[in-house]
Amino acid sequence: MLAVETINLTKDYRVGFWRTRPRRALERLSLEVEIGEVFGLLGPNGAGKSTTLKILLGLVFPTAGSARLFGRDPRDISAHQSVGYLPENPSFYDHLTAKEFMTYAASLFGLSDKARTRQIGLLLEQVGLSDSGKFPLRKFSKGMIQRLGIAQALINDPDLIFLDEPMSGLDPVGRREVRNLILQLKENGKTIFFSTHILSDAETLCDRVAILDHGRLQGCGELREILQVGLSSTEIVLEKPSRDAVVALEPFASSVVRTGNRVRLELRAESDLTEVLAQIVRWNAKLISLNPVRMSLEDYFMERVGGNDNSSLRNTAAAGTESPKSE
């Protein structure tokens, strides 16, 4: 059984004021998410990530196609008993304290008083809010609200957790803590499905990723396979090489960069590595490192969507860069 499955999922919205017209947010999206994996849905702003999550949660309905959570229709209320959800830019009742809000969230799942107290204390400690439980939410920063949102998504000890841009608004320490929490959830057998445009988070956390652009699936696969696809080049770093050594190696290199006493050469794909090493020995150059340069997740992402005229992509493709609200 799959944790999440979508088959030809399509969603059109009506846009405009007087004469509305359809705008396609998703185009025949088919995905499979295995139980126990961390799955990342990547894409620039407006790619359809939040729309996908909302359909999977039964918050909006697809125009065509179907979706399943553990084999059940997302519109089946019973399917939500084992699901947790963090929306993008969460907004909660600001007159409540963190503990009062968590108590309210726990009551929606029918937790007993004893289980409720234990779970709330544990989760507030996990997200770093154990000392802030008695303060009203209007005094919370954006990062603290984000942490609280993650805590409420886990209140029912769900087997499947949807996180829409979970790192939004968090400082570097908070992001590291959330990453560690996601990895801990995976160790506990949970399935995590999260959307993001921050590629470094996906590269750190995900077993598999899917890339969306303008509602269309551009690529999907295991990270270890994606990042091992193709050896793009070989990088050599030399310490204080002579001018003659650099001149002898330049025909083998696509780029030569000098930084202080070191010279970095990126070899052409067709270069004969044996001949390059022979030249290094011949000119008595000191070899510091020789590394294969493989495709990064950012390279893969840009290869799939970088050719599109999408201004938001340029703002979000760089790892670790925040951007404005997406869908």
CATH architecture descriptor name of the largest domain: 3-Layer(aba) Sandwich
**Oligomeric state as shown:** single chain
The total count of strands amounts to 13
Helix-strand category: alpha/beta
Order of helices and strands: EEEHEEHHHEHEHEEHEHEEHEHH
Can you walk me through this structure?
This protein is α/β, with parallel strands linked by helices. The chain has 2 domains: 4-226, Rossmann fold, CATH 3.40.50.300; 231-294, Alpha-Beta Plaits. The protein has 11 helices and 13 strands. The protein has helices at 49-56, 98-108, 113-126, 142-153, 172-187, 199-205, 223-226, 243-249, 273-282, 297-305, 311-316, and strands spanning 4-15, 21-33, 38-42, 64-69, 83-86, 160-164, 191-196, 208-213, 216-222, 231-239, 253-259, 262-267, 286-294. The strands form 3 sheets. Strands 5-6-7-3-8-9 form a 6-stranded mixed β-sheet, with helices on both faces. Strand 6, helix 5 and strand 7 (191-196) form a beta-alpha-beta unit. The protein is elongated, with a radius of gyration of 24 Å. The two termini are 30 Å apart. 35% of the residues are buried. The model is unreliable at 309-327 (pLDDT under 50).
List keywords for this structure.
6-stranded mixed beta sheet, Rossmann fold, 4-stranded antiparallel beta sheet, 327 residues, single chain, Alpha-Beta Plaits, 32% helix, alpha/beta
SSE inventory with pairings:
Elements: E1 4-15, E2 21-33, E3 38-42, H1 49-56, E4 64-69, E5 83-86, H2 98-108, H3 113-126, H4 142-153, E6 160-164, H5 172-187, E7 191-196, H6 199-205, E8 208-213, E9 216-222, H7 223-226, E10 231-239, H8 243-249, E11 253-259, E12 262-267, H9 273-282, E13 286-294, H10 297-305, H11 311-316
Helix pairs in contact: 2-3
